[in-house]
Amino acid sequence: MEIQDTYFTINQPSTEVLFKEKNSKFFGYAFPINSEEEVKTHIESLKKQHFSARHWCYAYQIGTDKIQYRANDDGEPNNSAGMPIYGQIQSFNVTNILVVVVRYFGGVKLGVGGLITAYKTAAQMALEESEIIEKTIDIHFLVHFDYKNMNKVMRVIKEKNITIVAQKMEESCEIEISTRKKNAKSIFDIFDGIFEVGIKEV
């Protein structure tokens, strides 16, 4: 079975999109994120930008193996906003992403069905405006060895085209390397098999 070691995300925030329905305005945004803290930051800045809006509904997904997600209706009827937004994240098959839809109420109630359609459409428009890119899932290892074994280690790194993330070269050396998930086991086994060289996942 081939290991799945790529995922789709966006590389920069989308441009603002606007969907109108019965005088209500729905502004849609998509942001690339790596942590929940970033969600708060983006929501807070949108609240400043749209201070007179009524609702700031959103959904996000983080992770590839262990998925973390949340859908927030922010005062709209249950599952009428956050889940339709999250549904679009799933249908575009993207992760490490936050999609926010800001609503200005236009005086006419849309009903739950109307809200679901409006939030889904604004989220879809925001994702269509985003540049979706494919990234690899990388595993990081720490290789440690004595200085005298430097050449052995560097030869493998060069032959296998491994990315060096950080290095500390003293009497005892440490190099942090990163490799695609599907190559991780073979890379681990190579270093693990070299005399006087240690390797562990970080």
TrEMBL record:
GO biological process: regulation of translational initiation
Domain Impact N-terminal intervals: 22-127
GO cellular component: cytoplasm
Taxonomy, superkingdom: Bacteria
Gene3D superfamilies recorded: Impact, N-terminal domain
Similarity field: Belongs to the IMPACT family.
Protein name: Uncharacterized protein, YigZ family
Organism of origin: Flavobacterium swingsii
